[in-house]
Amino acid sequence: MKTHGLHDSLEYRSWNSMNERCHNPNSTGYERYGGRGIRVCDAWRYTNGFAAFIAHVGKRPTPKHTLDRINNNGNYEPGNVRWATRKEQGNNRRTNRLLTHKGLSRTLAEWADAIGLDPSSLHERLASGWSMADALETPPNESHDSSNAIMVNHNGKTKSASAWASEYGIGRNVVLSRLRKGMSLEEILSTPIKKNLPRLLTHNGRTLTVAEWSRQTGIKYSAIKERLRRGWSDSDAITKPIQNTGMETS
After folding, report:
1. Nearest to 6 by CA among 15, 191, 122
2. What's the first-to-final CA gap in the chain, in angstroms?
3. Residue 81 counted as domain residue
4. 220: domain range?
5. 103 and 88 part of one domain
6. Lowest CB count within 10 Å: 19, 67, 105, 185, which one?
7. Is 135 a residue whose pLDDT tops 90?
8. Are 82 and 61 within one domain?
9. Shared domain check, 229 and 160
10. 176: which DSSP letter?
């Protein structure tokens, strides 16, 4: 593709900005790109870099399209760069969201691939209030609307699980989860829904939530939670200074 006349174009500005934020420490945004290891491949830098870049990605389809990395943790290189709208980029960031289940962290897209589910379906499950376990362990053929296909008899009436959930004001995922456990509708309706209350930590006679201790001590919330997960006492978790080695021992 000829690049003559494109050096004053938006494509050229995008290419130049891409190189600046990845390789110029004085550039705005460097800390979010070059500062965390994001680089531009050699073929798209230096003398013929712009020509090689345009040859791969082409011109912007519309003024609403901007440069996007398909893998947000990857480099600017062939196969990982495209022109995308804000909506497409938002969807891309959504599928790169990290999910942790049973100690394993993967992106939403990677989990979806592992369990044979479309990423948008997995996102819908989580957005609809499914627990992480249900969202990742429910078979793909049991869709988010499977509650409409499960019929339940109660007080002489037969309705779908979804209809009963709506009538009694209970989340349909709660109804489905309890039905899978073998509970009758009577038991489902009479069993209170457990609320995830914040964990309380006590130190020197004061009892506060993890978030409150984090604000008071200056120790990150995630660090306190990790310490507790490792079996640290409440007091140690919120009083011991953070070590700079990257590894902490109790």
Report:
1. 15
2. 60
3. yes
4. 200-239
5. no
6. 105
7. no
8. yes
9. no
10. H
Q: What is the pLDDT of residues 22-81, one digit of tens each?
A: 999 998 889 889 998 999 999 999 878 999 999 999 999 998 899 988 877 789 999 889
Q: Do 189 and 144 touch, CB atoms closer than 8 A?
A: no
Phi, psi values for residue 243, rounded to 5°: -85, 150
Evaluate whether residue 80 is within a structural domain.
yes
Instruction: Scan for tokens 């902490």, then name that residue.
Output: 248
CA distance 132 to 100: 8
Digit-coded pLDDT (tens) for 70-117: 877 789 999 889 998 887 777 666 667 778 888 888 888 788 888 887
**Residue 67 β-bridge partners:** 83
CA nearest neighbour of 240 among 93, 171, 81, 230: 230
Reading the block at residue 33, the tokens are 């790109």
Specify whether 89 is located in the same domain as 109. no
- What values do phi and psi take at 239, rounded to 5? -120, -30
The per-residue pLDDT for 144 is 46
Q: How far apart are CA 172 and CA 19, in angstroms?
A: 49
Q: Please, which residues bridge with residue 69 across strands? A: 81
| Whether residue 76 sits in one domain with residue 118 | no
Q: pTM above the 0.70 mark?
A: no
* 112 in the same domain as 68: no
244 located within any domain: no
Residues 57 and 89 in one domain: yes
Whether residue 14 is found in the same domain as residue 88: yes
CA distance 85 to 65: 5
Instruction: Give the confidence band of 17 by pLDDT, cuts at 50, 70, 90.
Output: very high
**Mean pLDDT within 15-28:** 92
- Identify whether the C-beta of residue 248 lies closer than 8 Å to the C-beta of residue 242: yes
What's the structural domain count of the chain?
Answer: 4
